Input
Amino acid sequence: MSLLASLDKSHMLPEKYRDMSVEQLEARVKELKSEYGKRLFIPGHHYQKNEVIQFADATGDSLKLAQLSAANTEADFIVFCGVHFMAETADILGGDNQKVILPDMRAGCSMADMADIHQTARAWVKLQQIFGDTILPLTYVNSTAAIKAFVGANGGATVTSSNAEPMVEWAFSQKERILFLPDQHLGRNTAVNLGVPLDEMAVWNPVTDTLEYEGNPLNIKVILWKGHCSVHENFTVENIMNTRRYYPDMKIIVHPECRREVVELSDMAGSTSYIIDAIKNAESGTAWAIGTEMNLVNRLIENHPDKHIVSLNPHMCPCLTMNRIDLPHLVWSLENLESAEGHNIIKVSEEIAKDAKLALDRMLNRKL
Output
């Protein structure tokens, strides 16, 4: 059952919050933050809207925010302004005293939803039949707690877009092959950077339960799960050609969740933090086309008026699920932090959390 299908009316925003003005909502957030003080921590992902990010106690990518949340031992309440898998990771790494809340339970991730645990278990059986005990599973942190637990239980680890290369190198030191979940593009781009030929990569299709590959399967080194980011996959070669045509001096920088052909034709590719740092450190007057989520691109435009910055895809929309977190939902969650029935609490079962933490710790404990 999908996250949306499992929601009931208790997760629906009461009408009174929709009727409040922006000024009323902002004043209420400030009031509640002051009231709770250090007992409240609000992490905000880079892709959040400005109306929410203005109240974040820390901004960053999903793993950084989860780590900051866990390290903030004074905080009893973590109101995670991001998406579901991020709040799960914060709960996995956090202490027993911490309650993790997601302001809008509809804030999921299409990429994470492209690999469910039932599909993964079926795939693992079939892949073991083909390749035997030669595969180590890796999962992008943009995945469900259940997938992280599966990977942890089978000797694997999580990766981020910042450390994917050293983690894939580590995986190859453990086993002959890797299964990379759930984003095929990050897996492919990472493996190519490490010198793995494209003809040694296959795609596992979880819908048809088949391996998409032409040739001798024994030549396969990397098995890519057929998943993707619905935002980053919308950057195209045509976008790059148009940018080169109209802005020949503009540098193109993209996220490695983009398609291989887009990354190949770009000037630079890297994680969200890499993109932010590249723009921050660029010389005044330089021009940039950025291939990542629109809220972040707009924020970079606002923060760097001395540079000419555009989205690589001028028709790109912000991440729809990230954008579900808004001021009304933030106020609603803050007003119900201590409600007896529990409000939008993200709680990973102890069994799943144990194995998921194994996968996270194998990454976090490595000196990368």
User: Anything to note?
Assistant: The chain has three domains: 3-108+321-337, 112-230+356-364, 232-311. The first helix runs from residue 3 to 6. The first strand starts at residue 40 and ends at 41. DSSP finds 17 helices and 15 strands in the chain.
